[in-house]
Design goal:
By secondary structure, this protein is of the alpha+beta class. It contains three helices and four strands, in the order βαβαββα. The chain has a single domain (18-104), classed as Glutaredoxin (3-Layer(aba) Sandwich). Strands 2-1-3-4 form a four-stranded mixed beta sheet, sandwiched between helices. The radius of gyration is 15 Å and the shape is globular. The chain starts with 17 loop residues before the first strand and ends in an 8-residue tail after the last helix.
């Protein structure tokens, strides 16, 4: 029997713990398109133990400039995982999957303590 929460409880509600991925993008950015494709694959993969909520922010916007300055980056794409700098340039799907698996393990270990990774 699996200890992983079911992705869908039958009512269309995803019960997996959620991680927020912020993608800083800009117009006409091939690597941004590549990052979006990676994130779509991960979001649509039921084998991923966490729900991935993607927030796409244009680097040219006021919010994008603030996030970019906070993350120390002036070019797109930049990926933040739960608000922390994770990757820039070409997004490695393997690296992100490993990070999400670790994140999921931390959530499971801390489930009773009320802590969140």
């Amino acid at each position: 029997m699996s200890s992983q929460p079911k992705p869908d409880d039958g009512a269309g509600v995803d019960r997996r713990p959620g991680a927020t991925v912020t993608l800083l993008t800009q117009d006409q950015c091939g690597l941004c398109d590549q990052a979006k494709a990676v994130l779509r694959r991960i979001q649509n993969d039921p084998a991923v133990a966490v729900r991935v909520d993607v927030l796409e922010v244009d680097l040219a916007s006021a919010e994008g400039q603030r996030l970019g300055a906070d993350a120390g980056v002036l070019f797109a794409p930049r990926v933040l995982l739960d608000g922390e700098p994770f990757a820039h340039g070409r997004l490695s799907e393997r690296k992100l999957r490993r990070a999400l698996a670790r994140w999921s393990s931390c959530v499971a270990a801390d489930a009773g303590s009320g802590l969140r990774p």
